[in-house]
């Protein structure tokens, strides 16, 4: 398994001219790669980052999300579905330019929209149709899509891995699978390890994210059992830390980040990678600070 770090801890607008030092630090801390937000990245920046990553010896994955006011695969408005497809195609192109093979995210619907009801059949079918087309495009350039079920407070279309399995089976493409996230599983699954076992054949990416979005290992959402089940099911992909703090103003209200979740802005990365390495038996000597 490879260990990655999502750059959203520090920025939602990655720039080669501004974040080279950050990438160097991430490499020094012991990560195998990084995860970029690819949906709003300039194509020239994606190509430049691809070259930088090769020089640093870092791998990468990519992530995207959709704003329901402008792009929504599940919308009854055809224009919003088409906008979602175009946004995803741009993210897929950037993923390829970065040198990544996986584009992940909660792509079942545009975020920020709730109907007050469970997903309706036509919404579900619209989302399947839109993401099948995106998946076909991704497959043509050698990219996998990892669709992420997220919690009911952020999305109503797909909240559990079981529903995610049903969704990707309906899409029916070999390059479209699921992202399993410890934070969302902690909220929605009755038994997280068992949910991951049941969905094992479809999991193509993993996010390690603590219950409070802080340092992995400092809460209760990333226990040893998570790593045991990944080993048991033969998972050999990325374990990417997804953590958040106060450094990115645009995410504070969106993710309800009303306080700091670590003693230092870099702790989720520096201590998190060591916690993961310890759990996997890869070495590392510093434990996450459980006392805060």
Automatic annotation (TrEMBL):
The keyword Transferase does not apply. It is an enzyme of class 5 (isomerase). This is D-psicose/D-tagatose/L-ribulose 3-epimerase. The keyword Cell membrane does not apply. The lineage of its organism: Bacteria, Bacillati, Bacillota, Bacilli, Bacillales. SUPFAM superfamilies: Xylose isomerase-like (SSF51658). PANTHER family: HYDROXYPYRUVATE ISOMERASE. GO terms for molecular function: isomerase activity. Keywords: Isomerase. Its EC number is 5.1.3.30, 5.1.3.31. Residues 24-277 form the Xylose isomerase-like TIM barrel domain. It comes from the Bacteria. InterPro entries: IolE/XylAMocC-like, Xyl_isomerase-like_sf, Xyl_isomerase-like_TIM-brl. Pfam families: AP_endonuc_2.
């Amino acid at each position: 398994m490879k260990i990655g770090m999502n750059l959203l801890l520090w920025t939602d607008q990655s720039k080669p001219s501004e974040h080279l030092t950050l990438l160097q630090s991430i490499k020094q801390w012991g990560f195998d790669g990084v995860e970029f937000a690819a949906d709003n990245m300039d194509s020239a920046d994606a190509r430049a980052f691809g070259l930088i990553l090769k020089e640093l010896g870092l791998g990468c994955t990519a992530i995207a999300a959709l704003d329901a006011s402008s792009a929504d695969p599940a919308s009854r408005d055809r224009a919003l579905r088409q906008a979602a497809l175009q946004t995803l195609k741009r993210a897929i192109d950037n993923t390829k330019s970065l040198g990544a093979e996986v584009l992940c995210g909660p792509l079942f619907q545009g975020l920020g929209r709730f109907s007050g009801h469970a997903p309706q059949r036509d919404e579900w079918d619209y989302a399947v149709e839109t993401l099948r087309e995106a998946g076909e495009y991704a497959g043509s350039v050698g990219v996998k899509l990892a669709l992420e079920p997220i919690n009911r407070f952020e999305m109503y279309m797909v909240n559990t891995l079981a529903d995610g399995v049903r969704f990707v089976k309906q899409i029916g493409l070999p390059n479209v699978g699921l992202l399993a996230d410890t934070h969302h599983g902690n909220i929605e699954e009755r038994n997280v390890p068992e949910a991951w076992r049941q969905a094992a054949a479809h999991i193509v990416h993993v996010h390690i994210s603590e219950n409070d979005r802080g340092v992995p290992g400092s809460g209760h959402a990333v226990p040893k059992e998570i790593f045991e089940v990944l080993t048991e099911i033969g998972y050999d992909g990325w374990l990417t830390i997804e953590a958040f703090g106060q450094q990115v103003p645009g995410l504070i209200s969106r993710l309800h980040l009303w306080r700091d979740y670590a003693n230092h802005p870099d702790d989720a990365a520096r201590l998190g990678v060591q916690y993961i390495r310890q759990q996997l038996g890869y070495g590392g000597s510093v434990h996450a600070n459980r006392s805060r």
